[in-house]
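In this section we walk through a basic example: taking a raw amino acid sequence and producing a predicted 3D structure, encoded as discrete structure tokens. The instruction is simple. Fold the sequence below.
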Amino acid sequence: MRLVLDTNVLIAAVAADGLCRDLARLRLRPHTIVTSAQLLKELERILVRKFKVEPESLPLLKALRDVAEIAVPVPLGERVSRDKDDDVVLATAVAGQADFIISGDSDLLVLKMFRGIGIVSPRQFLELLDRGLR
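The resulting token sequence is shown next.
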């Protein structure tokens, strides 16, 4: 499967042990991660601002850069999400032909689906995997 991980999922994976870290470290390996330069830059900004961490020091970020496909977000034509900043996640997913967006952001989760791309929480995605979705 092709997956876009919202920045909040990656921040949660870096910040604390738990569901998002397990998802990022263990359950995503057989899948293709799609991201964009814009999402990577947002991730770096948040890491520096909130956690005072140099992005180069994080193995997760290095791994993401090494394995993820970098898509160029497509123009959506009009605003889709309640939060205009979330449209880059949707545009990245469309450009990268993602099957799912994994997010903890209610402004994205309320959409449930966008142009055939499922939008699910980390827990929902793990439940789908546990039920045999491949």
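Looking at the output, two observations stand out. DSSP finds seven helices and six strands in the chain. The two ends are 7 Å apart (CA to CA). In the next section we compare this with other chains.
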